[in-house]
């Protein structure tokens, strides 16, 4: 697919996976907006920073008014909060779940106006299984998976392609303390762009994720 005529919004694009998305889209000639809390943290060539805290409804609405040419939205912003008390879980849900709802609802009309476009939600292997020490994060990703499936049905008529992205550990700061295999950000981004090009609804990025998803059926 030729992305040179596309305008792309990537949330949480100042580091890690979000930055990898922004850089690859820019490399492919797209007009790239990096939705971040601190615009000064975005320094990559060809990437335009936009003030966008996904927990702030007013900022989301302001970004939607400003970015009327967007035809690809990458809901990448996500947090894993230390501690698993109620405050931590609420903070994770505010970004990982309600943030996706805010951005999706604000940009769905824009995607429609621009021919349907694509909405990508970055989820997790923990969409499918729990983890006691990350119970809030896992629950938030499971909820976001459900929201993604609902969005796919809701936006189908307007021609919006909705992609769910599931992966085990990614080689980013969030997983720095974790041992075991990690997929590179570049590998994951490449798989997502291929899914967009092929019209696939889901990316299962690694063997572990594919095995866990397959086990749900049994």
Description:
The protein has 7 helices and 7 strands. It is α/β, with parallel strands linked by helices and 218 residues long. The radius of gyration is 16 Å and the shape is globular. Helices cover 43% and strands 16% of the residues. The model has no long low-confidence stretch (mean pLDDT 94). It has a 7-stranded parallel beta sheet with strand order 3-2-1-4-5-6-7, sandwiched between helices. Helix 1 (16-27) packs across helix 6 (185-198) and helix 2 (57-66) runs parallel beside helix 4. It has a single domain (7-216), classed as Rossmann fold (3-Layer(aba) Sandwich).
Mind sketching the topology for me?
Blueprint lengths: L6 E5 L4 H12 L3 E6 L10 E5 L5 H10 L5 E4 L10 H11 L1 H16 L4 E5 L12 H21 L5 E6 L18 H14 L3 E3 L2 H10 L2
Parallel strand pairs: 1-2, 1-4, 2-3, 4-5, 5-6, 6-7
Helix pairs in contact: 1-6, 2-4, 3-5, 4-5
Helix content: 40-55%
What class would the helix/strand composition place it in?
alpha/beta
Summed over residues and divided by their number, the pLDDT gives a mean of 94
The biggest beta sheet is recorded as: 7 strands, parallel
- How is the largest sheet built, in terms of strand order? 3-2-1-4-5-6-7
Q: State the end-to-end CA separation.
A: 36 Å
Q: How many strands in all? A: 7
Domains counted in the coordinates: how many? 1
Strand content: 15-25%
Low-confidence stretches: none
The CATH superfamily appears as: NAD(P)-binding Rossmann-like Domain
Shape: globular
Tell me the radius of gyration: 16 Å
Q: Determine and state the CATH class.
A: Alpha Beta
């Amino acid at each position: 697919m030729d992305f040179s005529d596309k305008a792309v919004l990537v949330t949480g694009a100042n580091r890690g996976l979000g930055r990898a998305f922004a850089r690859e889209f820019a490399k492919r000639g797209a007009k790239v907006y990096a939705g971040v809390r601190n615009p000064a943290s975005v320094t990559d060539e060809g990437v335009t920073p936009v003030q966008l805290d996904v927990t702030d409804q007013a900022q989301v609405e302001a970004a939607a008014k400003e970015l009327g040419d967007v035809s690809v939205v990458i809901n990448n912003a996500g947090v894993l909060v230390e501690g698993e008390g109620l405050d931590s879980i609420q903070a994770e849900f505010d970004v990982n779940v309600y943030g996706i709802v805010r951005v999706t609802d604000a940009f769905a009309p824009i995607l429609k106006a621009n021919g349907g476009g694509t909405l990508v939600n970055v989820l997790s292997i923990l969409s499918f299984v729990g983890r006691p020490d990350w119970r809030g994060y896992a629950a938030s990703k499971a909820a976001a998976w459900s929201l993604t499936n609902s969005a796919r049905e809701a936006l189908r008529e307007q021609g919006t392609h909705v992609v769910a992205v599931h992966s085990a550990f990614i080689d980013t700061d969030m997983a720095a303390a974790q041992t075991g295999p990690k997929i590179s950000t570049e590998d994951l981004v490449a798989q997502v762009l291929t899914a967009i090009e092929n019209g696939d609804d889901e990316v299962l990025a690694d063997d572990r994720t594919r095995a866990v998803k397959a086990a749900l059926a049994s």
